[in-house]
Design brief:
Blueprint lengths: L1 H16 L2 H4 L7 E5 L14 H13 L6 E7 L4 H18 L3 E10 L1 H6 L4 E4 L4 E3 L11 H6 L24 H26 L15 E3 H7 L4 E2 L2 H9 L25 H6 L4 H16 L4
Parallel strand pairs: 1-2, 2-3, 3-4, 3-5, 4-7
Antiparallel strand pairs: 5-6
Amino acid sequence: MAESSLIDKTLARLRAALPARFGGESVLVPVVRLAGVIGISSPLRPGLTIGSVARSLERAFEMRGAKAVALAINSPGGSAVQSHLIHRRIRSLADEKKIPVIAFCEDAAASGGYMIACAADEIVCDPSSIVGSIGVIGGTFGFDKLIEKIGVERRLYTSGERKAMLDPFLPEKLEDVERLKSIQRDIHESFIALVKARRGAKLDSRESALFTGEFWTGHRARELGLVDAIGDLRSVLRERYGDKVKTPVIADRGLFGRRLPGVGRGGWEQALSGPSLADDLVSTLEARALWARYGL
């Protein structure tokens, strides 16, 4: 009996000395933050791309003992391709590791941001979150009258009759616009199919505006079946897994612990080459325009 008591005391001291995640006293739910415009990048303002988030996602799903992976999403959308690639990577890792995924929407999970949220098994948002915008948008400017007015002659040489399609310095052609709209319809149909496949019977099939590109606040999004619950990351995870739940934020780090600034040429190569002020200004304006669509 004395020997047993000594062993128990020794084990108790060891448990107290070990971090909680090793002592079995807490639940681990790693968090990956997916914030910003998708695809639009500059050296000083990296956007969300599969290259910029892949490693963080892999690290989160590889954490030993993780009961779930949480996604903190705050994005107005952007590139359809990058949105889909991120969505597919999340689903691939979740299926491979057999780990559930919970998405938490912050200011916005709109357009491509909502596509990423659909990779989760459950979507939670704030009552005032902007959710939806299941559609495709594209835009440009027309400068042909301006350059004519200031006496500039446009000289463009192509091989292929559609190579200069929608050139902003040439007059717009109706057949080019219809071609673009056809491509947008294809992308839109794929987006709709993805949402239906992921949300299924949860969606309110009576709502005709569901796939028109319209967006809603969190409460209405829940009524429409676009999200599952109203709440925030900390409260929901503590309620579900207990007060001792651990939620480490997983971020890819470079030399000296600094976060790698974007993708493309990658990390330090990109940072050391020097940012382009013009590129950064353009990407900032594009990003600002996307956020402004939702009043944010």
